[in-house]
Amino acid sequence: MTTAPTRARFRRRPLTAFALAAGTTVILAGCAAGGEDASARVEEGTGTGTITVWALDGQSAENEAIQGIMDDFEAANADITVDMQFIPPDQFLTGLQTASDEELPDVLAVDGPLMANYAYNGYIAPLQDWVSQETIDNQTEAIKGQNTVGGDLYAVGMMNSGLAMWGNKALLEAAGITMPTSADEAWTAEEFTGVLQTLAQQDADGKPFGVAENNGFATEYGIYAFAPILWSAGTPLIADGEAAGAIDSDAAVEAMSTFASWREFTDPDTDGSAFQSGRVALNWMGNWMYPAYREALGDDLVVGPLPDFGAGAKTGSGTIAWSMGGATKNAKAAGLLLDFLMSDEIVTTYTNANGAPPATTTVLGTSELYGEGKPLQFLSEQLNAACPTEDKLTEDCVSVSRPITAGYPVVTAEFGKALAAIWAGEDTAETLHAAARAIDRDFSDNDDYR
């Protein structure tokens, strides 16, 4: 795999600075809102010429991997030139909102939970007619759940993500505690309270638990990391287009109250190193921290499921995927690139570069990290047990995508505010009722995003 670009033009797009705070400022009425056929502005094209690609300007390893991938695509498709543009995340939305149809990219990266909003606004189009059936069939059920809106597939994914409970085996064994190793064996919420009480007796400050509080709860991290509390209690955040009776259900109130009760055992983790430094024995966190945890703990690092709040242990899933522009005039060439991105060689290269779980079944099964017998096989098992969306919750499935709705920005904003308030000691029922009212009011104001 080469890393130096040849003909492809890689640059950062100069856009007006714009602060996108946790996805809460998405404009919810755009060029295709109001019922226009989602693929009406798409043209097949010749399958040759120049296609524009927008990618999120991320970590250097990811950027270099993407650059090399686009270079290799051009080498394999001599009649196609890639105009590659890396765009800072805080400028990405502005670029889409201000672009004319001619300026919209042919292919773009989309953060998973915003998929439905981007589809609603016409920034992306269904792509099942432009990628191969082999590509579609090889996508994991978890990632297909995130990328499907209204029955249409709007994206394909190279990678996914997942949550787990990470443990320090030495500290756990010193307290006589063994980490569960499957979702079926997950501690119940009541059992987990007992685990924390036991660990607290062995801990210098009585705070043996971490939840990455330094990431903030009123952020996108809040809904990603802690929506599984509600799902594990058997309740979605949104049911039949309404938050009332879902995000503030009795089961949700009980589960969130239990979670808030664990604050007395929780290290504030202001430096982000509570687990690596050994201050806590258990840490609620995503797969992306594995390299740092492994380096710090070595063979003492163990991994297991989040607690079961009554309807089975759950985990969040979903991340950035690749979509086709909503007004592309060269869908044929865009589809060729998407197929290339999802090939085994490319997915392997990319996920090896960033350590994420592959989102294709073939590469997930053979991954050096997530394959059978490998260090993070447990996370693969969770992702393979996909619900995959919150309207299909059962006790047996584990991984769930965040709500698939064009109104997602208000859902994540209100959930995050509620979570932060409850953690700070506000009444759980009142706080969740207020969040439900705010979400439903926004949906009503926007004609339920029909």
Automatic annotation (TrEMBL):
**Which PROSITE patterns did the record assign?**
PROKAR_LIPOPROTEIN
**Is the Transferase keyword given for this protein?**
no
Keywords on record: Cell membrane, Lipoprotein, Membrane, Palmitate, Signal
Q: Where is the signal peptide?
A: 1-29
Q: Does the keyword Membrane apply?
A: yes
Q: Which Pfam families would you find in this protein's record?
A: SBP_bac_1
Question: What is the protein name for this chain?
Answer: Extracellular solute-binding protein
Organism (species): Microbacterium stercoris
